[in-house]
Amino acid sequence: MRNLSRVLLAAAIVSVANPSLAVDEPVELTYGQVAGVDLEHGVTVYRGIPFAAPPVGDLRWKAPQPPIPWHGVKRADTLGPACMQRRAALMSEDCLYLNVWTKADSADASLPVMVWIHGGGWTSGASSNDIYDGFGFADKNVVLVSVNYRMSAFGFLAHPALSAESARGVSGNYGILDHIAALEWVRDNVAGFGGDPGNVTIFGESAGGASIYALLATPLAKGLFHRAISESTWITPANVTHLTRANGFSDSAEERGRQAVAGKLEALGVATGGDLLATMRAMSADDVLDMPFGVSLAEDGWVLPTSPAEIFGEGSHNVVPLLAGVNDGEGLMFVQPQRAFTTLEDQKTARLAEWGEPGRGLADHYLAGTPDALYASEVDYNTDLWFARPNREILNAMSRTPAGTFMYLFTRNLRDPGERAPHAMELRYVFQTLPDDASETDRRLSDLISDYWVAFASSGDPNGNGLPAWPAYDPDRQTYQVLGAEVTQGTAFRRAELDAMDRYFGATWARAKR
User: Fold this and answer.
1) Nearest Cα to Cα of residue 186 among 198, 174, 175, 204
2) Which residues partner with 298 through β-bridges?
3) Which pLDDT tens digit goes with each residue over 422-481?
4) Is the pLDDT of residue 98 over 70?
5) Is 206 a catalytic residue?
6) CA dist 439 to 351, 435, 436, 451, Å?
């Protein structure tokens, strides 16, 4: 009942928050008709369109299934609930919905399409977040689609029993399969909104960037998108695993899932004999959410035939134009000054124990030389470990193909222009959803960034239309565009540090395979 109450509350609040008039002319989809809502400047929004069946009951922990067809015209005027997560009132397991903003005046407009995948550590967030309002992109003649996907254990739980049930012998990666289902929906339906199904750009930030990373790697997404933008690609030592074996940083995905389920059922006093899968699917959504579970991609031989690092290294990834970058102070969001190391010896002891023998080369780059530098060194370590290293990995991989490749470094801090840009700071600039009191400098930068993104979505190149020139990335010079109060260029962003980080990851993975 608690989850049902959440859904009803979500519908009531969102309906009140978006008063407007439904558009009379419906759009014909593969599973029914939808009518949208008129906004300003000729933009129409379609909210809460199902792109898959509700993943509940027997469909919990299964690949997404086709939407349930409906009769008549569905009024797409209410945002769907967020997928299950902590600290959010408006959520449900029944959450596989998307939203469409368009300015097209006919189905023949063939506008570029951009599909947004939100961040939140694969544990929180939703397409309904007001930061991700698609009006600004639609006003610049893009069809903007934003999607929900299963998160936490709902989206990433692997388990031996789930693998045994699967015809392919795999489990996990359900959130990534949700992305693929949404892209298939776009392929089949976006033309009705005036979008070009042959010109689809996927873009996402943080965990959404990690989803871009996975979609670039998986053969299941081949041909479903034609360009990719990854903002702050979030790939850590713990969020890429192997389905059945440890990888040097983590237990296998199945073992992590087995421990999470067993621990939760024991805490609930539920017997684990008999039909374990039925028991798991009978758990309440809240109990599943409360499981002590760490999300990760699973190298399963199907969604990910081998590790993404190997896929990118051998060049078997999906080849499309790529724009990717990071913020210069990503770690400011995650490293709290009051929790940073207080002495140089404390930092050295902890980090050397973490790195082990394969990571000894990191000491020259990530151990502070003075007590005053401790906090900054930890911010840099987090920035590089979680974001800058995987960002460079996909840029280097794509730059070895004929596809256009472009890197950015975002440096503007909306709250404190004198400080570096923390994680997620670029989002309101990208979506042109800055606060009303934003400065003229910030508004100009937001308009410029959105113009770059639209140009890239249109042609695979951010250059054009009188915009400041943006040089292509190449693996030798590693050229990037600085996006800040001033737009400039740089080369080899933290190259020595990231080279050391690559050696550390490579050595650890190699040892695990022996």
Assistant:
1) 198
2) 241
3) 999 999 999 999 999 999 999 999 999 999 999 999 999 999 989 999 999 999 999 999
4) yes
5) yes
6) 41, 9, 9, 18
The tokens 């906004």 sit on which residue?
39
Superfamily of domain 2-299: Alpha/Beta hydrolase fold, catalytic domain (3.40.50.1820)
Least confident of 86-90, 167-171, 420-424: 86-90
CATH class of the domain comprising 331-512: alpha beta
- Active-site residue flag, 423: yes
Strands 37-38 and 27-29: unpaired
Bridge-based pairing of strands 405-410 and 322-327 is: parallel
Please enumerate in sequence order all residues whose Cβ is within 8 A of that of 37, keeping only pairs 6 or more positions apart, or say none: 18, 20, 21, 22, 23, 44, 45, 46, 47, 76, 77
From the list 254, 299, 330, 426, the catalytic residue is 330
Catalytic residue among 423, 446, 458, 497: 423
Measure the N-to-C terminal CA separation of the chain; round to a whole number of Å: 50
Q: Positive or negative CA dihedral for 328, 331, 336, 339?
A: negative
What does the pLDDT look like over 230-241, one tens digit per residue? 999 999 999 999
Type of residue numbered 405 = T
- Which residues make up the CATH 3.40.50.1820 domain(s) of the chain? 2-299, 331-512
Cα–Cα distance for residue pair 382/303, rounded to 1 Å: 28
Tokens at 52, concatenated = 């898959």
Interval 125-169: pLDDT, tens: 999 999 999 999 999 999 999 999 999 999 999 999 999 999 999
Query: What tokens were used for 354?
Result: 């973490």
Which of 92, 124, 128, 206 is the catalytic position?
206
Torsion-angle region of 343 (φ positive above 0: left; ψ -120 to 50: alpha; else: beta): beta
**Beta bridge pairs of residue 491:** 479
SS3 for 93?
coil
The owner of tokens 């020259």 is: 364
- Give the number of other Cβ atoms within 10 Å of residue 439's Cβ: 12
